[in-house]
Fold these 3 entries.
Entry 1:
Amino acid sequence: MGLSSSTYYLPAPAGMMDEGRKCFNSMVNDFHLKPWMEHYGCMVDLLCRAGLVSEAFEFVQNMPDKPDTIIWRMLLGACQAQGDASLASQIMNHLHDTGPKNSGDYGLLSNMYAAVAEWDNVKEIRKEMKEKGVVKQDPGSSSIEL
């Protein structure tokens, strides 16, 4: 029996934490299925939407497989929504270990520090970007031709 990530994702918007947890645990314990990264991502999203960012971080740290950058960025975005700059800083350390440097990650953290007037940290982030050669990307654009 397979469980698609879109089926699993359904409880998140409705705020049905217990239902989502039950579904994930049933998949693992009752059906003995190994969750895909997408399933872990859905669980992280579910926890973050419920405001349980610290619990989501703990969940990610206990994953049997190494989390991908998408999961770390989900957590980083949730930290911004919750205003948790301390946890965001820890998550950035994990992002440094998982893949190429992304200016958006640095921008998010810098903006979080700016929002709480931690200007020394903002300066440190920008300095780190410069030292590591992380270039701020131009925002994308699109057009519609009629």
Note: Residues 30 and 37 are 19 Å apart (CA to CA).
Entry 2:
Amino acid sequence: MKERFKNLFMKSSKVIHWLESPGFLAMQKAGNILFGVVILAGLFLHYFEGISVILNNIIIGFLMITMFSLFFVLSLKFYWIKPPKFIRKGTENPAQLFDRYSHWSFVYGIIIYSFFASFFIGGIVVTVVHLIFKLNYDFSKLYYNLFFITTAVFTVFYFMYHVSMKGISTKVIKVRIRLYLAIIATITAGLFGLSLKEILLPLVTYLGIGLAWLTYFIEKIEMES
């Protein structure tokens, strides 16, 4: 299990480094990809305008998916909202911040980073469902639910990164998990009867789900070792 996550992180890192590497026209390769897709989509829509509305939507959808996907992948390399100095501690981007095993880096990840990541993922979902497949779907709670799901997924990947890539002991991780579970239980108990319940309860619930899966992965690693 540990090696699987390590391979996943290493491959993801290679993709990000490749996208950031120099490309043509004094741009990074990510910029070249987006620029090329925009040009191709523009040429296609110009020369084949009116032939097929469905085909036009697919081309536009492909452009938007490419854009949102690049923003999602490269969001690790750019502070959309720069945290205070006592949180970022000299780091220049979220990737460097998440490389630090600290409470503040985790909090920034489950709130700020997860918010923007869920926005980009939501953009891809809306494009595929509504623009390409023309399906009628109520998107009113899409971003709301995606945010909480993203916090749970981030929780798993954050700690598994430090276990598989940084060599943090599983015992240290398990102590941190118990701490966060205790905090979640305390917050949940304090929410009864409060108006904030509708806002915070889903967050702590999904965090609990993320920590539950994380506990499974940690115990799986301990069993395999």
Note: Residues 2-224 form one domain.
Entry 3:
Amino acid sequence: MNSPKYSILITNYNTVDTIEESLRSILNQIDERFEVIVVDNASTDGSQDYLYKMEYLNKIRLFTESCSRGQGRQIALDKSWGDYIIAYFDMDDVYKPRLKEFVDLYHKSYEGKILGAKVLMAPRTFAIRIGWHDLKEREDVDFWLRASSRYNIARLPEDFLVKYRGVTNYPLVKSIKKRLIKYIEGYRLGLKQSLLIDPRIQPKLWKSIGIAGLLGISWLIVRFIGKFYWVSIINPKAFDEVRQYDYKRIRWEKQ
């Protein structure tokens, strides 16, 4: 039986100060089972020159395109050939030498799910069915919302793979990511798209009411026998699904 292949997907834009250390922290821990695909969004700071060098050395497959972040992610996915997708790596972060451990853990405990730990791992067929939309921002929020409505999701601590260095280390950004988990839960429980918190999906509603109002209207938090049920006023069947939480990971399972 042939070993599965893995596609590591990266998008880049103007990260000349960090890209060399960041990319090498990935390249130094992979073998022939892995390919690295980088889509550069017409960088102008010199980081593209470094990527051309890595491409010449056959370290990466490079594609340059003036595009949104969402479109860049989709281009990388379309160009990939791996059985599994590992995405998306930011070039302002340094990555711990635990990538193979991450892959082994996925096959041992999370096969058939989407596993998140700052980056995500999933079968390529899953990623293709979901895809990334042509968005300049919040493209990953959009992806996770749609992914959570179709597949089981498991989550590891974000520092499992990543040694933060970029903007992702800011407390505000971390708090936003915690909110994203709540949004995904609400989406899985049947929340109508017109009430989702993503301002791209419903900009007029977002501007007129704001996040506090939307949260109050969309769902209530009810604690029952030690578990949290996310209840959508719009969908009384929300009780059919339960959020199960443990200290190491978050996952959703139908009861």
Note: The helical segments are 19-27, 47-56, 69-79, 99-110, 124-130, 139-148, 171-188, 203-218.
